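Objective 1.3, modelling of assemblies. Example input:
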Amino acid sequence: MRNYLLKRLAQTIPVLFGISILVFSMLHLAPGDPADLLLGPDATPEAVEDLREDMGLNRPLIVQYGAWAGRIVQGDFGRSVVLNRAVLPEVMKRFKNTLILTAGALAFAVVFGIGIGILAAKFHQTVFDSAAMLVALAGISMPTFFTGIAAILIFAMGFQVLPSSGMYPARGGDFFDLMRHLLMPAVTLGAVSAAILARITRSAMLEVIQQDFIRTARAKGVSEDKVVWIHALRNASITIVTVLGMQIGYLLGGSVITEAVFSWPGLGQMMVRAIQARDYPTVQGGVLIIAMSFVFINLAVDLIYAWLDPRIRYS
Amino acid sequence: MKIWNSGAGALLATAAFFGAAAPALADETIVIGLQAEPVTFDPTQISDLNTSRVVHRIYEGLVGLKYGTYDLEPRLAESWEISEDGLVYTFKLREGVKFHDGTDFNAEAVKYSFERQTDENHPAHGSLTYRGAPSYLGPVDTIEAVDDLTLKITLKQPSGPFLARLAGMTVKIVSPAALKAHGDDVGQFPAGTGPYMLEEWEPGIRATLTVNPDYYGTAPEIEKLIYVPILEPVARLSALTTGEIDLTIDVPFDSLTELEENPDIELQQGASAHVWFVALNTQLSDPPFDNVLVRQAMNYAVDKEGIVNDILQGTATVSSGPLSAGYGDLQNKDVRKYDYDPEKAKEFLAEAGYPDGFGGCEFMVPESGSGMQAPIEMGTYIQANLSAVGIDCQIKTMEWGAYLTAYRESPMMAQMSWNPPIGDPDIVLNNLLNSSNFPPGWNAGSYKNERVDELVSTAQRLSDPDERRELYLEAQALIAEDAPWIFVDHGNQIIAHTTKLKNFLVSPNFDLVVEGASYED
Amino acid sequence: MDTLMHAPKTAAKNANAPLLEVSNLSTEFATYAGTLSAVDGVSLSLQPGEVFGIVGESGSGKSVTALSIMGLIKKPGRVTGGTVRFKDEANLLDKTPAEMRKIRGGQISMIFQEPMTSLNPVFRIGWQIAEVLQIHREMTRTEAWERAIHLLDRVGIASPAKRAREFPHQLSGGMRQRVMIAMAMACAPSLLFADEPTTALDVTVQAQILDLMVQLKEEDGAAVMLITHDMGVIAEMAQKVAVMYAGVVMEEATVEELFDSPLHPYTQGLLDSIPRKKSRGQSLKAIPGIVPNLLHLPTGCRFRDRCAAAHSACALADPPLQTMPNSTRKVRCWLHHPEPPK
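Predicted structure (tokens):
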């Protein structure tokens, strides 16, 4: 097990290396020049040229990459051109906010998605089942952007029960405020995942419930609740966790739109801004952090997998 | 007793959760919804409007703008004298002014703030890039602190816009003590002389400014300003109508009527120096944009009134030249105007030798962009207008960052807009239309009229406002006649605020000046 | 010595009272094509300690009969009629699910054909056995675990403490069935349903498992209802046999009677299909045709399409299950009926 972990961790190094090359070249080969964007309308061509020189943008790409990668290895992510601060602490601060949003969305997706999926399977072919699956289908088809705007119009502007956007109110900012502000974006972001999880959970449960060992459990006198929530769910959870792992990735990616709609000060919002401004150090640093978290999520999912399904063993 | 307490607490908590969305704030505080978060409080490092809307409150320059106008007025300099040859500017500085960190403002501080940007060996130069310095401080030769309150700036050559530029962002005066203490990170620990100072800053969440108790001038009535970023226009609108914020900019066009009918909200439209145009490559013979008749025909062909009313919902005025009404008497209103007239456009085309029009022009349109209003809708509208008189254009859309680069590579036909940060015509007429700024400069259409070049270049070297005005008026008339652009519109600033906010005036430079406003419950 | 192994046995009180008495049990399944009767008026009776075999081809309704008695029929199936009397209990079919759960796994338990799929793959086998004890014996987790190890030992699994911590996929097929038996016998039931307990196992293992079942049954005094298609297993284990075909009992007799003188042509066909020493080298006779579609049963006798002895009466009416004169054996065939229809 320890060897497996070390092996997996070692594998992340070439992955991150590859990602860094990919991001670097995509950014630098894309049209658009940070000097132009930074200087804006008031700049002379000479000033733009000076700035390019200053920022090292006139050096060959490979040299630029080497310099950047060399610093990254030493833990120096560089300085954001837009924020005018060191990239790493800034990226981590925003990433923390993204994680809060993602965790909220995940909690919603897990509780409602898996919960509804299990109940739909339990009450298979009833009105509840059909209604839940109809709602889930609607949830999958609804774009986050639309759901978000609709939520703002209904709950913030219409009923005025929830704040329009942001992470904290203009003043104050305790845990309670955070939860109020988190509710709409988390549900908006988690809606699609909840719907997908509900459908997956339902079909996984229905399949498991057909299995012989469920009949065995019933023959043992196990109560119907325990049959569903312990015997069946534990087996179905192998499928559910696979999908859940993919959904975490989706949630991290999907947070970009949600963060923009709800002005959530997360990494996605920061990255969009950085890309627009061709703030290379920030984009590169952000992508590396996200890539690393993806790698770790995958590793975690694999480990949970092995824990859930004793037939899987890693070495 | 204890049980009762916790029960009541939970009840209150529930009420707070689902109750009123916005807790009432103290009278002296207003919350301002910005389109994006402010990113730094170092005036030399700012390249976006939303950041400057906050930073303008904290720092001041030698000169400032009169409330709601582009007119210059004394600020940290009480008065100034300009030598006959226009080379030496002697500023008499205000006495007894202190920075927010308690240190004194004086001539040395000005020198320190300026030379930090221009002198690579200056102790506060650090590793930053001073992007504004070439344009704002480029003409400066030497800076001399004659005494504590006298500052002498000598220019390399006379510069007409120099004084106006001293109201700009990068030349605001930063406390030397703060620079010494924080170096490159001074943007996180601002210390200026402005009427407000930074109280709390949580990046991405809020920036709270509180009134400067030692301010030398009239203290603002509103004690606290809280700036919150709200990226989504619908959310800004929602936050305003529910009272979460008191003031905001850029609400969705289609909600304007609704806001006008809302008795709690006051909607203000103010002129700005903004200009929106389509640059035509005047050096090209295919398509024949080198023919002035063709360019004039295109100006007749485009229904600018229609764009302003149908797409921009009346939030702009039709343009007849590079300068908007925001420039006051610097704008030449008596220029040739191109009212929408497709028949006339066809006549002009026929006269130019294209009775059936022509095709093959590529029309560059950004997907979005600062000040670009509704680029794709407007581009499509213009394309349809031109097609109606026989000119066929293909639209090519691009992401803004890529667009800015492509724009400076001699495009055939391209949209652009300009939000001049200062009120001097030089920044428009010289930067965009002087032949000295051919690509990769911002004169993307390579427009060249020798008389215009001469007028604009001369005005750049003069310092007498009246003399300069004459030259700019003539230049504007010539430009209108030459039609190097399709002149489309000047966008208005749309500001919506609670009716409790009184005496708020829209500033032409896109700032949100709240110093003169008051808040009444 | 071992209180658990000596659960009270009603059989001891009244030797003549049957342990289980099933009358007129009917179970239907709703399908898109219509409702089919999987079990159509089955009556059976089991004495305490007896091994009762139910034999028949697949689809004959023998498993459904067992599941119906245990209350394990799930939608779209439904028990539509009959009574099931077990010990002193009222009709099992009228009991609530909660009441049935107390009986299942405790007094009546069941082992299934596929040990491979009948154990939950994600739980340790010790846990799966302990669970029964926790439900029916109100044991603590630790007590139940200890007990489970003991039970594994009893069904002949070596190093039971280590095995208890293993998962089903780590065991061989035979061991899994031993685990199933340990689980079924955990609460010393008075009735055990064994549904094709050896069919999925290797021939060598089959005998061991059957021996184990016999041994445990003897020790605990349980009655066994053995469901199989294998006449050989019946011959070895059972005292009484019911032959089922298409949802009904065709013939019921003691093992000796049935093997010595099968009355029903179907029973004869089943016996002819068993490989025997004396017929080695000869080809086995299979019953021609297939089990009829329960939705489209032939009129009259449901076996007549495949019956070599079928005659005109067979098409006219369904024969009743009739007790033979001077005997306890029963048969459902016009050949043995005093007054077949004309």
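Chain C touches chain A at residues 70, 72, 97-98, 101-106, 109-110, 112, 114, 117-124, 131-132, 135-136, 167, 169, 180, 183 (CB under 8 Å).
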